[in-house]
């Protein structure tokens, strides 16, 4: 904080409701919450693309009638997409609520974004809930994408190489990314 600031640095930190937390971390939290909302928005687009692919009686590219997905796969796709959307919406609303609380607790001065007095436990659990919503949304999005692959390329039970390879790559890459994300969230939560 520069010398021209009307708030002395020592008096501000002595009145901080969250002891041991630097006031500049508020902007880091807001940035993290913005990131969650932005990523969830991107995934929500994927949900609606998946919903557009849920057409009944569609032929797969496998050219065997026995490999065509039935109505049950299309129904599962629809259910997984709706559940995925619900988790992403939950996550985004929690993140937006936390951002709103931080911004309302700040003064009207734009430069005071670093001065919000917030309950650190509420912020941490809110961010954890938002992250958990994003993870669960990703899990159900992967399940729905597997259904999209089965509708387009043929059922996994048919053993189509394209289907098996696509599902394998999807599950491995997304699982790896979720493992890194979950590890990072828990590390940040515990430290």
Question: Can you tell me about this structure?
Answer:
The chain has one domain (18-190). α2 packs antiparallel against α3 and α2 runs parallel beside α4. It contains five helices and no strands. The chain is an all-alpha fold and 191 residues long.
Name a few traits of the molecule.
mainly alpha, elongated, 191 residues, membrane, disordered N terminus, transmembrane, Maternal effect embryo arrest protein
Q: What portion of residues belong to β-strands?
A: under 5%
Secondary structure tally: strands = 0
Query: How many helix segments?
Result: 5
- What are the secondary-structure elements, in order, as H or E? HHHHH
The radius of gyration over CA amounts to 22 Å
Report the principal-axis shape. elongated
Number of domains: 1
Distance from N terminus to C terminus (CA atoms, Å) equals: 25 Å
Q: Helix coverage percent of residues?
A: 55-70%
Overall residue-averaged pLDDT value: 75
Q: Uncertain segments of ≥5 residues (pLDDT<50)? A: 1-23
Largest sheet: none
Protein name: Maternal effect embryo arrest protein
Keywords: Membrane, Transmembrane, Transmembrane helix
Transmembrane segments: 36-56, 77-102, 122-146, 167-190
Organism: Salix suchowensis
């Amino acid at each position: 904080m520069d010398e021209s600031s009307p708030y002395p640095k020592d008096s501000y930190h002595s009145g901080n409701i969250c002891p041991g937390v630097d006031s500049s971390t508020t902007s880091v939290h807001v940035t993290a919450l913005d990131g969650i909302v932005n990523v969830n928005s991107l995934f929500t687009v994927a949900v609606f693309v998946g919903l557009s692919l849920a057409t009944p009686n569609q032929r797969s590219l496998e050219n065997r009638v026995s490999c065509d997905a039935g109505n049950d796969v299309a129904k599962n796709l629809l259910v997984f997409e709706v559940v995925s959307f619900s988790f992403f919406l939950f996550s985004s609303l929690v993140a937006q609520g936390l951002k709103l609380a931080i911004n309302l607790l700040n003064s009207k001065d734009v430069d005071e974004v670093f001065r919000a007095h917030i309950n650190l436990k509420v912020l941490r659990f809110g961010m954890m809930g938002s992250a958990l919503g994003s993870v669960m949304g990703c899990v159900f999005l992967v399940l729905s994408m597997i259904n999209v692959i089965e509708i387009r390329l043929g059922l996994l039970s048919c053993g189509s190489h394209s289907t098996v390879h696509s599902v394998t790559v999807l599950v491995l890459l997304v699982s790896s990314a979720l493992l890194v994300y979950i590890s990072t969230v828990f590390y940040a939560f515990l430290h």
